[in-house]
Amino acid sequence: MGSQEKFRLAQQFLERLRSGAAPDEIASLCTPDLDWNVPGDPGALPWIGRKTGREAVSNFVRDARMMVEGIGFDIKEVLASDDRAVILGHVHSRIKATGKLIDSEFAIVLTFAGTKIASLLLLEDSFAVSLAARH
């Protein structure tokens, strides 16, 4: 698969996230043994840390929809090569339990196996996320 196909898969992932697609529909874009990695404070939110499997995506989508109020989700750029796609953006959200805001730039690095996402690395201001999530 070339960079155009990787770009298309990254766009499809974003479209499903934005459209409110079912968590399992979004997870179906991933390999069954997906490597999920969101570095940060694993006690702050359930999706932070390293996990394996498609259910990491399903759980993230479900939990984020329950726990976070989206205020803004802006994609600045999607870059793709033959090996990976990188999504650069900005997120503005509120943790429902605390009422605290998160305002962070982010990068999502996707790698692929065939036509599926094999790994997802989310880089964001993990300190701000931890502060917002904790009472």
TrEMBL record:
Pfam families to which the protein is assigned, alphabetical: SnoaL_2
Signal peptide positions on this chain: none
Domain named SnoaL-like: residues: 11-119
InterPro entries: NTF2-like_dom_sf (IPR032710), SnoaL-like (IPR037401)
Domain of life according to the entry: Bacteria
Database matches in SUPFAM superfamilies: NTF2-like
The name this protein goes by in its record: SnoaL-like domain protein
Annotated source species: Caballeronia udeis
